[in-house]
Amino acid sequence: MAYQFIHIERYGRQGAHQKKSSARKRSMYDIRDEMIRAQHACPHVADPKPPGILLGKAPEEAIAIAAERAATAVDKIGRKLRCDSPVVVIGVASWPELVSDVMADPEKRAEYARWRAKTIAWLKARWGDDLESVVEHMDEPRPHIHFVVVPKLDDARRLQIQSAHPGERAAAECKNAGGSPSRQRAAYVDAMIDLQGDYYDKVSACCGLTRLGPRRQRLTRKEWVQQQRQAEALGEARAKLESCKNEVMARTREFVNDRIAAADAEAQKKLKVAAQQSAERFETLKQKAIEHISVLRRKAVKLEMQLSAKDAVIAAQEEQLKSLQASLGALGINQGMIM
User: Fold this and answer.
1) Taking the CB of the first residue and of the last residue of the chain, which one, N or C, has fewer CB atoms within 10 A?
2) What are residue 11's DSSP bridge partners?
3) How far apart are CA 4 and CA 9, in angstroms?
4) Distance between CA 330 and CA 324 in Å, rounded?
């Protein structure tokens, strides 16, 4: 195995002039054309192939978003941005194995896939929604991925490149704090070193890559081989640890799911029993109510019969009284005389 490689750079719609030259640096459109394998932009590739989109949009769509925001943005005094103002951050991360070896060996393919997945997760965690595109190239000697980060406009239509570039952010914060140009440069370098260190901790160390190469560290061949072996051992150990962690988490989830299922089954059982008991109590109350209503109805019928009998007696008495009054009237005796 070898050491990690990840690099980010900021770009404008036009490249800035190089020092002491009329030539310009590459623009975001130049990088876009290389990423999409435009014919004029990749003479270094023997057999160009379209990139594989791993996350988000195609490179040309991401660059179009950057161009649209740049056209809308203004500087700190309200003027339109210069054409060479940096408006997008584009980066590349590379895997050290040859494409031919990766494609020929299932184990190496799995190692590459693991590195790729961890790199994408790291990019998402660092840049979030500003990460517009991640693509893969497998048509060069070593597999690598490009990514495009497009900062958003703020409420004042300012496009702050330092929100997407850690070095620029550190330098701007140092400047705002009153730091000298040399301290701003030092802050920039420190932030970029921290970026490399964070990538190493989160990705490379888990994949058996070293932080630095042998030339940078001035190592002998023997020391470099030893460091590679240590990196490989560390990567294997971390991979096993991650595998154990995933297994423990899977078992934990299974245990929790089983407990939840058991608790849910017990709850359903209790609900069923409670529902059954409620239904039985309801049926009992219903029967009692029916019986009570039946008794009340019988009593009502009995009272109605009694009232009917009393009404008949009263009616007969009234008839007798009328007959008696008629007989008295025939004898010449009226009610007033009786009273």
Assistant:
1) C
2) 88
3) 17
4) 10
Write out the two tokens for 70.
């740049």
Distance of alpha carbon 59 from alpha carbon 41, whole angstroms = 14
Percentage of the chain with pLDDT > 70? 85
Residue 54 to residues 11, 210, 321, Cα–Cα distance (Å): 22, 25, 114
**What is the C-alpha separation between 73 and 160, in angstroms, rounded?**
10
Sign of CA dihedral 65, 68, 74, 75: positive
With tokens 């009232």, the residue in question is 307
How far is Cα 149 from Cα 57, in angstroms, rounded to an integer?
11
Residue type, 118: K
Backbone angles phi, psi at 87, to 5 degrees: -130, -5
Query: What is the rounded CA–CA span in Å between residue 191 and residue 126?
Result: 13
Query: Is residue 31 very low, low, confident or very high in pLDDT (cuts 50, 70, 90)?
Result: very high
pTM of the shown model: 0.65
